[in-house]
Amino acid sequence: MEVNLLYFILASYFVGSIPFAYILTKIFGYGDIRKIGSGNVGATNVLRTGKKSLAIAVLFLDVFKGFLPVTFFTYFYINKFELSEIIFFAGFTVIGHIYPIWLKFKGGKGVATYVGFILGIDYILGIIFILFWLTIALIKKYSSLASILSLLTIPIVLYFLSYNFNVIIIFILLSIIIIIKHFSNIKRLLNQSENEIKF
């Protein structure tokens, strides 16, 4: 692996590992987000503080940190690297969010950062993910189910959009990692104890 590629992987990881949910809840006096609700370091759990504006801010920042690296690398390095390489090392933004070094590798579930990541690659992909997520969420009322099914859909969409095999494999691996992070949600879905979304 080239040294500069390693630098890009680390840069993506560290951007992704910025725990905005943890930082903002601390700054605004809501304590440690890991001791609130589900303990998850993400926008959904920040919403349990009762502060919607804070949850929206966290959601925006988590999406943005997924969007930033892949957009930056694509703009400045598309002539140096293949798109699949850029997607590979920019994908570590999502890994950073899920396993942040600052929080002993216990982060959020990665969906918002993943959305930003795919928006940076192809806004069509991002729109498809969001629309599919909203459709499932409105019908079934479960955020986790909507996320899981949307994650499974994107590699299929990539295939029909004629993305190369390496890109599809990267997305399959990211989907698996995020779905594994939803293991507790899957158990609750199976025993019908998962919390419904309240629109």
Structure overview:
The longest helix is centred in the N-terminal third of the chain and has 26 residues, at about 50-75. The protein has one domain (about 5-190). About 70% of the residues lie in helices and about 0% in strands. The chain contains eleven helices and no strands. The mean pLDDT is about 90. The chain is mainly alpha-helical and about 200 residues long. It is globular.
Give the key terms.
11 helices, 70% helix, mainly alpha, 199 residues
List the helices and strands and how they pair.
Blueprint: H1 3-16, H2 20-27, H3 43-46, H4 52-77, H5 83-90, H6 92-98, H7 111-121, H8 123-140, H9 143-160, H10 165-181, H11 183-190
Helix pairs in contact: 1-4, 1-6, 2-4, 4-5, 4-7, 7-8, 8-9, 9-10
Order of helices and strands: HHHHHHHHHHH
Radius of gyration: 17 Å
- What percent of residues are in strands? under 5%
Shape: globular
Terminus-to-terminus distance: 47 Å
Structural class: mainly alpha
Segments where pLDDT lies below 50 for 5+ residues?
Answer: none
Q: How many H/I helical runs?
A: 11
Relative helix content: 55-70%
- What integer is the average pLDDT? 92
How many discrete domains?
A: 1
Largest sheet data? none
How many distinct beta strands?
Answer: 0
